[in-house]
C-alpha cells in the first residue's frame, strides 16, 4: 500500500501528522502533531512579545529622560531660587593666622576691620611638684568662676591604705563631671596634678580652695578675648565670636597688628560658577541623549561604513513627544531678555554660555566671573526674573510643565506605553487560553485517528480475507 497524505500542513508547508506511513499500523505521534498545529496558531504571539520588548526599552529610555529633566530642574532651581546660590556669602580675612571668618545667608556683604589684642584662655590650677607619685587621699574643694565650691573626696587605693596615686586621683576627678579636666604633668623635677577648665574666659577660672595633705595649688585665672570690630571694643569668653557681626562667625587664633585684619564678606561667586556649570552639564546630558535618539545610524560602530551596517536610531525616534521636548529645550535656552530696564544682562552668551551646532552648551568661566564681578545684580536678576517673557521666567515655566507628575509629556508617554504593554499581555493570555482548549480538542481527535490508523493493517487483512483475496495454500508432498 502506498503512503496516504492527510493534506494537513503547517504554515511553512511541513506535514502536520508525523509518520512515514499511515497504513503500517504504527499510527501517528499525537503530541508532536498537536504541538505543530498549536505552534502555527501561536505565531501572532511573536509580534506581541516583540512589541513588549520594544515598549520595555522605550520605558527605560523615557525614565532616564525623566530623571535627567528632574536633574536639570534642580540645577536651574539653585540659580532661580532666592534662597539658592545667589544668597550664599563667603568671608575672607587678610590675616588668617590671627582671625578667620565664615558667613551665613543672614550676613550682609561688607568689609570689616578686626583688631585682636588677646585670646580667650582657660582657667587652670596646678599642684606643687612631687617627687613621688603617691599622694594622700582626702577632700579636694574646687570652685569654677563665681560658682559654688564643690567638694570631692579622693579615695584611697585600698581599704588598708590612706594614699593613692596622682594618675588614680586624676582619673577619679575626671569621672565627677566638675567642669575641669585633670591630668598629670611630669618633668625632670617631678610630677604635678593639673586641673584645666573645660570652658574658657574669665568666668571659667579654676580655684582650688583646699586639698589633701601634701598638695598645694597655684591658681591661674582664665581670661576673655579682647578685640575691636570696626573700632567697637568687644570681649568674648571664647575664641569663636558669633555676635559681633550679624551672620558672621570669627575664629580667633592669634593677635593682629594694631592696624588689624580686614574681613571681607562678599557673594560666593565660586558657588555660583559651580551651579551654572552644573546647569550646563545637566542640559547637555539631555540634549546629547535626545540627539542620539534621532541620529540615523547612531548604532554604527566607529570606523564602520554605514553602507555595510544596518541603519538604526534610538528607541524613541518615532515618539513625537520626545521630539517636542527637544524642540522646547532648544527654544527655551535661546530666549533673551529679562524685561527689566535696569538689567544689562540679556542672554546666556553674555555670561560666557554658548551653543554648539549640536545644541549642547559650553561655559567660559572667565566671562562668567567677569560678569559677576562687574554687575552681580544683573546676573542674579537674569536667573531670577519672574517675567514670563524673560529667560528665567520662560525656563521656569518649561521645567514646571516638564516635571508635572500627572500631565507632563513623559508621564503621559509612560502611561500610554504601560497600557499598550498590558494590551499585548492580554492578547497573549487570551490566545493561550484558546490554545489550551484547542489542544484538548485536537489531542482527542488525533488520538482517535491514531487508534484507527494502528488498527488499519488488521482491518485490511479482514476485508481481503472476506473478499477472498487471501487464501490458505497447502504444499503438495
- Total number of strands: 19
Sheet bearing the most strands, described? 5 strands, antiparallel
Fraction of residues in H or I helices: 25-40%
Placed side by side, the strands forming the largest sheet appear as: 1-17-3-13-14
Number of domain modules:
4
Summarize the structure.
This protein is of the alpha+beta class. The chain has helices spanning about 30-40, 45-80, 165-175, 270-295, 320-330, 365-375, 375-385, 390-400, 410-455, 455-465, and strands spanning about 90-95, 100-105, 110-120, 120-125, 135, 140-145, 150-155, 165, 180-185, 190-200, 205-210, 215-220, 225-230, 230-235, 240-245, 250, 260-265, 355, 360-365.
How would you describe this structure to a colleague?
This protein has ten helices and 19 strands. By secondary structure, the chain is an alpha+beta fold. Strands 1-17-3-13-14 form a five-stranded antiparallel sheet, with no helix packed on it. Helix 5 packs antiparallel against helix 8 (391-402). The longest helix has 46 residues, at 409-454.
Question: What are the SSEs and their pairings?
Answer:
Blueprint: H1 30-41, H2 44-80, E1 89-93, E2 99-103, E3 110-118, E4 122-127, E5 134-136, E6 138-144, E7 150-154, E8 163-165, H3 166-174, E9 180-187, E10 190-200, E11 206-210, E12 217-220, E13 225-229, E14 232-236, E15 240-245, E16 248-252, E17 261-267, H4 269-293, H5 320-332, E18 353-355, E19 361-363, H6 365-374, H7 376-384, H8 391-402, H9 409-454, H10 456-467
Antiparallel strand pairs: 1-17, 2-16, 3-13, 3-17, 4-10, 4-12, 5-8, 6-7, 6-11, 9-10, 13-14, 15-16, 18-19
Helix pairs in contact: 1-9, 2-4, 2-8, 2-9, 4-5, 5-8, 6-7
